[in-house]
Specification:
256 residues, Chitinase A, domain 3, Alpha-Beta Plaits, 3 domains, 5-stranded antiparallel beta sheet, 4-stranded antiparallel beta sheet, 14 strands
């Protein structure tokens, strides 16, 4: 890994929550597989309008990125650019030949799928890549896409989360995707969050909250984490009863 001046004291260490910019390539082919930079994605022909290309929060040592990148983030200087090459065993792992399988074409036809080479498919609750289609059979590679490949990263730690509220917001963004409209209170080792209404109905929140608790314990040594849902009764609006319509005497039916 190459770096700049070693005299800078502001360094990121294990347990810090940092915000990073990065580009990731397959070393042998120079194929871009991930980036936080829109221009890099456009240059590689991989730009997706639905993707937000922004620096991302990472808990160093939290296991959210490949082990080799996690290790590379330790003790780097904030604001400096770095390059690192990660071997397969510290990236997506070695490629396992046993995970390449021949599957009968009829399995795909049952799902109304016409397999093509390079297609990502989900079959038998597993995701793989079609690598060959022959008469009556389809070869599918269930290895991870980057398995067996050395990866190279160019990255920069832009900042570290410092205050308690900033750290909580960074964890929310890291694990849930947003910290918007969360009301956060931190006292000693207790953290309380009043949840925005969207969390009450979002299936993603049900899974994310467990990761959030684990990361807050790791990053902030939190002993108690409380999530509060508030249900506020809507204000009642008074409605005046309309006055009964007057009926002219001649319109009143007379008894015969």
């Amino acid at each position: 890994m190459s770096s700049g001046d070693e005299n800078q004291v502001d360094k990121a260490v294990k347990g810090d929550i940092v915000r990073i910019d990065f580009d990731g390539w397959v070393e042998d082919t120079n194929e871009l597989f991930d980036t936080t930079n829109a221009e890099t994605a456009k240059d590689a022909g991989l730009y997706n309008e639905k993707v937000q290309y922004v620096p991302v929060p990472i808990l160093i040592g939290g296991g959210r990125v490949f082990p080799g990148l996690d290790e590379a983030l330790e003790n780097v200087e904030v604001g400096k650019e770095y390059d690192v090459v990660i071997p397969p065993e510290k990236a997506a792992g070695p490629r396992d030949p046993k995970l390449v399988e021949m599957i009968a074409l009829r399995e795909f036809l049952r799902q109304e799928v016409e397999p093509r080479v390079g297609m990502e498919i989900n079959i038998k609750n597993r995701t793989g890549i079609v690598t060959a289609v022959t008469a009556g059979r389809v070869r599918v590679d269930f290895n991870r896409r980057l398995a067996g490949k050395s990866l190279k990263y160019h990255f920069k730690v832009l900042s570290k989360a410092e205050g308690d509220e900033e750290k909580v917001k960074a964890v929310l963004e890291m694990d849930y995707g947003t910290a918007e409209n969360f009301n956060i209170r931190v006292k000693d080792k207790s953290i309380c969050m009043v949840l925005p209404d969207v969390c009450k109905y979002d299936q993603k929140w049900l899974l994310a909250k467990y990761r959030i608790v684990a990361d807050l314990r790791e990053a902030m040594k939190a002993e108690k984490v409380r999530f509060v849902e508030e249900y506020v009764k809507p204000a009642e609006t008074s409605k005046e009863e309309p006055a009964p319509e007057e009926i002219a005497p001649e319109e009143i039916p007379q008894e015969q």
